[in-house]
Amino acid sequence: MPRYAILRQAHTQSPAFDAAKEVLRQAHLWEEKGDGEIPEWEAFPQGVNGGENFDRAAAFVSAQLGGERDVVTLVDEVDPALMNPLMSKGWSTLIAMLVLAFPEVRWHFLVVTGRPDMGVDDKQKSWDHFSRLHGVASLTEPRSTALFDGHGLRQHIREVMKRDREQSKRQEINERVVPTRPELAVVLDDETGFSRFCGLMAYRNGFRVHAIASWREAERLLGKESAVPKIALSIEDWYLGFSDASPGHLSDMEERQRFLPALGSNPLPIRRFVTVGHDRKKDDAARRRQYLRELRLNERLGTGRPVSKSCQVVYKPASGLHTLWDKLGFPRAFPKNTTASPDSGDYRQSKGLANGYIWPPLKPDAKQWELEDADGHSSPGRLLQISEHLIHRATKLLEEVSTVSDAVQGAVLATQALELLGGKTPTVAVDALALKHEFEVMAECQFVGVEFHLSMKERLSEIRKNLDAMKHWLHKDRREAFLLNSEARIVKRIISVLDDNGEYEESVTCQNRLRWLHRKIRQHDEWRETKVLRIAFWWVNYYLEWVQRSFVHFACTLTFFIGLFTCGFRALAPEKEPSWWNALHATVSAMHTIGLPPVPVETEEFPVANFNLTITVTQTHHLRAFLGYFTALFGVTNFGIFVSMLYSRISRK
Q1: Helices vs strands, H then E, count in the chain
Q2: What DSSP element (H or E) covers 237?
C-alpha cells in the first residue's frame, strides 16, 4: 500500500482533498493512522516561485520517501501547458521541477486547468489525455513503478520545453540536448527483479516503459479497453503467473493475445520473450514454434527486416544489459533513428535506440555556438539545480543498495540527471555518468537472474561516446585532458564495484583500460611540459601496459622478442656460417641468467711461420655484450610480470 502526501497552494484549503481521500478509502488504498491526516506542504508564505521554493518542497517530498512503499503525491491543481521548468513561473513550474526530480513518485492532480478551446482538436486531445492519466480519477488504477515514465508525465514536461522554444534562443538550444522518449515499451514478467531489470534495459535505450507487475494492470493497459497508445516493443515472460489470479492459461500465446489484444494491435509491436524455456509437452512446444514463426513473418512484413529465430526467445538466466539487448536483436530491429538524417551524423549514434531518442547529444554546430555565446555554455540554472538534486539522492542511495530494485532506481536517477544536463555542464555530467554506470553494474552483479560473467566492452565504449559528446563544451586545449581523466575516474569506480562483487575477469578488462588511460594521461602531461627524457621512455610504459592485458598478449609478445633476439645473436655471431640453433641457445641462456651474463670474448690464433710462434688475439664483442645484457634484463622483467599475472589469476585479486 502506498504512502500519500499533499502539495497545495495557500488558496487551496485542506478540505478540497476530502473527495480524493474518500476515493482512496472506498478502494481500501489508504490506511488511516493517528489523526487520519495526510502530510501536507503548503506554498504560502514562501510564494510559488519555482526556483526559490524547489529546495523546500523537495525536502518535504524526500521526507516521505523511504522503505519499500511507493509514494503518491496529490497536487491541488496544475496547468499542463505551463509545466516548463525553464520559461514559465508559478505553481506549475514548481510542480514540473519536482516531477523531474522525483521520477519514482506517482503524481495526481485534483484540478487540471488550462483547458483549450473546443475548436483546437490536437490541444484538446492532449489535455484530455493528460487529465485521464494524471487526474484524480486515475488514483485507484493499478500501477507499478513510475520510474520508467510509462504514463509519460516526464515526457510531457520535456515536450512542453520543446514547444516553448520560440520564446527563447536559449530554449532552442536546450531542445537539441535534452532528449525525449516518444516510443513506449511494455515488460510482462511476474518476477519483480526481471521486470525491473528488463525495464531498465529498455529505458536506457530510449523507451518509456510499463513494467507491469499484476494482471489487473496488464488488463487495464493491454486489455480490450486499452488505455495505452501505440506500443513499439514488448518483452515478455512466456510462462506468466501473476499473483492476482490471471484468467486462462497465459502461457498459451493465442489465449494471452485474446485477453490482451493490444499485443496484437496494428501496427504490431516488436515482441521478444525472456523465459526459463522448459517444454514439458511436445504439443505446446510445436504450437509455440508455429506462433513464433507467425510473429517473425508479421514483424518482417511490418518492418521490412528479417528476424532471426535466436533473437525471438532468450533463456534465463539473462546476460548483462548490453548483451541481452543485443541477443534480443534490437540493434537490428531499430537500425537507425527515423528522426535523424544519415548525413547529419545522427545515424551512427542512434543505432539500436528507440525512434525519436537521440543520445549522446550531437556535436554543437556553428549556429549553436553563436546562440550560446550570448548566454554562456552551461546548462540552464533550473535544470542544473534539478540534476544536482538527483545526483545527491543517487549518491546517498549508492551506500544503501541491497536489492536489484535499489540499483535500478539509482540508475534511473543518474540517467535523468545526465539527460537534463545534456553534457553542457561537463563537470557535473561526469558525476552523473559515473553514477549511472555504477548502479547499472551493481544491478547486473547483484541480480541472481543474470549470468555471473559480464561483457564490459560495450559499456566502456558507451562511456567513451558520452564523454566525446561532453568535451565539445570545453575549451579545445582542455578537451583531451578532460576525456582521459574523466574516463579514468569512471572506470576506477566501476572496478571498485566489480571487485566488491567478485567479478575478477571483468575487473581485469577494466584495469587494462585504466592502465591504457594512465599511460595516455602521462604522455599528454609530459608532452605538454616537454619532458624529453620521459618521452624517450614512452615505449617502456606501452610495453608494460600491453603485456599485462592477458596471457595471450604476454605469450605472443614473448615469442616475438625471442625471435627478434635470436636474429640479433645470429647476425652478431663470429662464425662465418652461424647456426640458428646456437643463436636461439644464446638467447635462452641470456634470458635465464640471474645477474649479468659473461661478456662474449672471441679468441683467434695466428701462427708465425719463420719464427715457429703463435700469436693469440683476444677481441671483445661489445655490441653482442650489450644485446646479452638487454636480453637478460628482458628475461628477468618478464619473469616478474609472469609471476605477478599468475598470482593475480590464482588469487582472483
Answers
A1: 26, 11
A2: none
Which tops the pLDDT comparison, 342 or 612?
612
Mean pLDDT of 568-576: 76
Task: Kindly report, residue by residue over 402-420, the tens digit of the pLDDT.
Answer: 889 999 999 999 999 999 9
Q: What residues does each domain of the chain span? A: 1-144, 378-547, 561-651
Model pTM score: 0.83
Do residues 97 and 383 touch, judged by C-beta distance below 8 A?
A: no
Helix, strand or coil, per DSSP, at residue 608: strand
What ranges make up the beta strands (E) of 14-140? 40-42, 71-78, 106-112
pLDDT over threshold 80, residue 273: yes
Grid cell for residue 270:
516488436
Class of domain 1-144: alpha beta
Q: What are the strands of the beta sheet with 106-112, ordered from one edge?
A: 40-42, 3-8, 71-78, 106-112
Three-state SS sequence of 284-325: HHHHHHHHHHHHHHHHHHHHCCCCCHHHHEEECCECCHHHHH
Decide if 74 contacts 6 (C-beta within 8 A).
yes
Which pLDDT band, with edges at 50, 70 and 90, does 201 fall under? Answer: very high
Q: Give the integer Cα–Cα distance in Å for 213 and 220.
A: 12
Q: Residue 280's pLDDT band (boundaries 50, 70, 90)?
A: low
- Position 374 scores a pLDDT of 43
What φ, ψ does residue 189 adopt, rounded to 5°?
A: -155, 130
**Residue in 308, 239, 235 with CA at minimum distance from that of residue 277:** 239
The label of the residue with cell 514454434 reads: 289
Nearest CA among 499, 498, 471, 475 for reference residue 484: 471
